Amino acid sequence: MTRFYPPSSVAFNFVSLLMSDSFSRCDWFLAISLITGIVLFLSDQGNNGTSQPALLGDAPVGFQSSPFNHQAGHMGRAMVPRPPPRMARSEILHGRPRPTLMIGGPQQMGPDFVEDFGMQDVAAYSQSPVLMIYGLNPEKMNCDRIFNILCLYGNVIKVKFLKSKPGTAMVQMGDPLAVDRAISGLSGMRFFNEKLVLAPSKQMYLTDTSGSVSQLNDGTPTQIDYNNSRNNRFTTTEQAAKNRIQNPSKVLHYYNAPISFDEEQVNNICKDLDISPPSKFVPFKSKTERSSSGLMEFDTKAQALECLTVANHFKIDNPTYSRYPYIVKLCFSTSSTTSRE
Q1: What is the 3-state secondary structure (H, E, C) of the chain?
Q2: Which residue(s) pair with 159 in the sheet?
Q3: How far from 214 is each of 139, 219, 223, 270, CA to CA, in Å?
């Protein structure tokens, strides 16, 4: 026989439990998180389906099995921290220093990241917009090149290299979802003979370095603010809707290039930048006389990522139509160059 208790008695018993000496700080956190999640979930259910779409659009494949729906904007259930089925409660509270109280399945992190850091039971769910990046080649990477990669996953606010840890940087993104997307797509990728590892940071924002900013090996500053950069691709809802977030692939889509942009010019640019040229170059039929677009395919994902890192936002003179140069933009593509030829 099922017994039902009136809400008042349940609330009294729950409050009594909270006030007991045996209730630890972690228990407090779980209880408060549970209450907050229930309130948000009920509030979300009462909005008659009028929730606003997420600014970043559809999530990549690794996020589609998450218990919350980014596309619909239903974030109520996402606020309730709950462990994956195989994790014991003691492991969550005491056994994992970071990331803590994460949601979803292990498919949200790259396989190399999961293997190297022993996080088979934990998935990425960031509560901070700050991202930690490890495995950067000090001779190849700078703030602009980090921006060139991460701008595909959300707005980049600030990039800062750590002087005490060569090859390590911190990046403040526009929101925690951008951090999750970057971790999902990039962790475990190899480029410039290094393995890229991304993880959420405990900090909620990046502070400016006091005094003069030091320089990297190439003479560029160790910290740059990109908050007002026109190359951020998610500044408005309309702008964000044009960007499809894709995981790294061998194919890059280029756009905003001159009409005369051809394979020979691409090979010369790659030679000047000391990166591998594409094995296939397929231009699209242009709908305007002002700019062109197309696809570039590389032999490996690493080569495509290196090209994106170095050549994204490459400037080409535009003497015919404007005093401002062309800024060639790159992004990953799931299209095949074979079907476009």
Answers
A1: CCCCCCHHHHHHHHHHHHHCCCCCHHHHHHHHHHHHHHHHHHHHHCCCCCCCCCCCCCCCHHHCCCCCECCCCECCHHHCCCCCCCCCHHHHHHHCCCCCCCCCCHHHCCHHHHHHHCCCCCCCCCCCCEEEEECCCCCCCCHHHHHHHHCCCCCEEEEEECCCCCCCEEEEECCHHHHHHHHHHHCCCEECCEECEEEECCCCCCCCCCCCCCECCCCCECEEECCCCCCCCCCCHHHHHCCCCCCCCCEEEEEEECCCCCHHHHHHHHHHCCCCCCCEEEECCCCCCCCEEEEEECCCHHHHHHHHHHHCCEEECCCCCCCCCEEEEEEECCCCHHHHC
A2: 171, 224
A3: 16, 9, 8, 29
Burial of 42 per CB tally in 10 Å (0-12, 13-18, 19+) = exposed
Distance of CA 222 to the CA centre of its chain: 21
Q: Length of the chain, please? A: 341
The more confident residue out of 287 and 123 is 287
Is pLDDT of 278 > 70? Answer: yes
With bands split at pLDDT 50, 70 and 90, how would you rate the model's confidence at 8? very low
Provide the pLDDT for residue 35: 56
Residue 68 phi/psi, 5-degree rounding, is -130, 155
**Partners of 74 in the beta sheet?**
69
Residue 37: pLDDT band (50, 70, 90) is low
What's this model's pTM, rounded to 2 decimal places?
A: 0.65
Q: How confident is the model at residue 270 (pLDDT cuts 50, 70, 90)?
A: very high
**pLDDT confidence of residue 316:** 94
The residues, any chain, with a CB within 8 Å of residue 275's CB and separated by 6 or more, are 303, 306, 307, 310, 311
Backbone angles phi, psi at 309, to 5 degrees: -65, -45
